[in-house]
Design brief:
With 472 residues, the protein is α/β, with parallel strands linked by helices. It is 35% helix and 21% strand. The strands form 2 sheets. The chain has a 9-stranded mixed sheet with strand order 14-13-12-11-7-10-9-8-15. A 6-stranded parallel sheet has the order 3-2-1-4-5-6. Helix 1 packs across helix 2, helix 1 crosses helix 13 and helix 9 packs across helix 14. Bound molecules: NADP nicotinamide-adenine-dinucleotide phosphate. NADP nicotinamide-adenine-dinucleotide phosphate (NAP) binds next to helix 1.
Length: 472
């Protein structure tokens, strides 16, 4: 399949000469209903899907296509960015097909290929929206029965369970798809404010010149969730916060915040260089605190003895000229007091005044806030902290015009734009760092701490830094 000549054309999907399709493994899953189908509805409304583009949802449930469309209709009412309209949805629904299949059985892929032939579908995007443990089975099934298809694949995180497993998976995928047809999706990279980080860093004299150890004291990257494991218990208990959030999303964010300016080189090379310069952790106690929320063990489908972490706080150091001695704090967790993802850059304090803070809000609110010092009116020289706010998501027009991350990323894959996807060598660098950290954690006497639901995590996390701010 790799050798097959790709048809050149200029439309959005590049797949218009015959029936083309996205096949979603996990078509009846949470991700598909909440993110993928709404994203495709939005693209349909915007006229960005070819007329003959089909959406094939795969699952084990005993649905007909009509059942599946009606379920999708309900999700669309709550989750699509573009307003649900019955007639528009009915047009969109003509693209949708449900195909019942057990994807763990290799022989089932022969039926799937027959279905593609019957429907004259020759160009494919396969979306692996299932647990990572199923990625290999799917690839083997496709390889055996669907290998004459012209195909790309989009793979959800986490990619593998460790470096060894990810490498095996990558080589199997690359045998079938070719490295350039593999799209590792990291939806954080499709978020508006993540894309904005470089603009803010590089296009402002007030930040560009001071983005280094001489002016920056430390950086804090937080992804707090107020929800627990919800319907994702089976997957989450095998993964945990480190593999679900840190290995992929948060290290990607860190790499964009800290990488060198991509002069001449592509952004991905600079991100890779940054990920390779993360200092390997020697003493886990000084660098990592993991926790589990009280009540996790009673959640449905969670092993009652589970040692899976639902919270991670860590201190990362970067071994390069720009960042020598500047700690980067990362923290993420479930069942925390708030849902908020943000980056806080703390500048070095001058004249004992409070440190200036640059706060980049990623979700749910989006914006940039700068805290600085000014004279308190009516006093001789008292200092007060004041702030400048740019609340991007407060502007209705911005909200309406900002594509959801999955919408942006699916469209990018359809047109073959790989910039917004994680690259394999970045994944390797990231696993290298995380594998070492988790091995050190296992060897150490570090405990898995508990924390109350609705708190900001275990109090032991405070030992990593004295300035973890409450989120605003
Ligand atoms: N949910 C999110 O917000 C989110 C965000 C980012 C990344 N992800 C990633 O997306 C992936 C899927 O997550 P999810 O939350 O959507 O999981 P989920 O709700 O548990 O859905 C799992 C899907 O897999 C299907 N499935 C499982 N075993 C199958 C089998 N043997 N044959 C056919 N289908 C099978 C299920 O179909 P049936 O139920 O019909 O059996 C269901 O459609 C994971 O890798 C996760 O890390 C999810």
């Amino acid at each position: 399949m790799k050798e097959q000549t790709k048809v050149e054309n200029s439309t959005m999907t590049g797949l218009e000469t015959m029936n083309s399709a996205i096949t979603i493994f996990g078509g009846s899953g949470d991700l598909t209903y909440r993110k993928l189908l709404p994203a495709m509805y939005n693209l349909h409304v915007l006229g960005q899907l070819d007329n003959n583009f089909k959406i094939i949802g795969l699952g084990r449930r005993n649905y007909t296509t009509e059942d599946y469309i009606e379920i999708t209709r309900e999700w669309m009412k709550d989750y699509s960015r573009k307003k649900y309209e019955e007639q528009t949805f009915n047009e969109f629904a003509k693209r949708i097909i449900y195909f019942k299949i057990d994807i763990s059985l290799e022989s089932e892929y022969s039926r799937l290929q027959d279905f593609y032939i019957e429907n004259n579908i020759k160009k494919h995007i396969y979306y692996y929206a299932v647990a990572p443990s199923m990625f290999l089975e799917i690839t083997n099934g496709l390889k055996k029965y669907c290998s004459d298809n012209d195909a790309k694949v989009i793979i959800e995180k986490p990619f593998g369970e460790n470096l060894e497993n990810a490498t095996e998976l990558n080589s199997k995928l690359a045998e079938f798809f070719g490295q350039d047809e593999i799209y590792h999706i990291d939806h954080y990279l499709g978020k508006e404010m993540i894309q904005n980080i470089l603009s803010v860093r590089l296009n402002n004299a007030i930040f560009k010149g001071i983005w280094n150890k001489d002016f920056i004291d430390s950086v804090q990257i937080t992804a707090a969730e107020s929800v627990g494991v919800e319907t994702r218990a089976g997957y989450y208990d095998k993964s945990g916060a480190m593999k679900d959030m840190v290995q992929n999303h948060l290290l990607q964010v860190l790499s964009i915040v800290a990488m060198e300016e991509p002069k001449g080189k592509t952004m991905e090379k600079e991100q890779l260089a940054l990920l390779k310069s993360l200092k390997k952790v020697e003493n886990v106690d000084d660098n990592l605190v993991m926790g589990q929320y009280v009540g996790y063990l009673d959640e449905p489908n969670i092993d009652s003895q589970s040692k899976t972490e639902t919270y991670v706080a860590m201190k990362i150091e970067i071994d390069n000229e720009r960042w020598q001695g500047v700690p980067f704090f990362i923290r993420t967790g479930k069942k925390l007091a708030t849902r908020e993802s943000q980056i806080i850059v703390k500048f070095k304090s001058k004249n004992n005044a409070p440190a200036n803070l640059l706060i980049i809000k990623i979700q749910p609110s989006e914006g940039i806030f700068l805290k600085f010092n000014a004279k308190k009116p009516g006093t001789d020289n008292d200092i007060q902290e004041v702030s400048m706010d740019f609340c991007q998501s407060c502007i209705l027009e911005n909200r309406m015009n900002t594509p959801e991350a999955y919408e942006r990323l699916l469209r990018a894959c359809f047109i073959g734009d790989r910039i917004l996807f994680s690259k394999w060598d970045q994944i390797v660098a990231s696993w290298n760092y995380i594998d070492n950290l988790l091995n050190k954690y296992k060897e150490s006497s570090s405990k898995l701490y508990t924390y109350e639901q609705g708190s900001m995590g275990p109090k032991e996390a405070n030992r990593l830094t004295d300035w973890i701010l409450d989120l605003e």
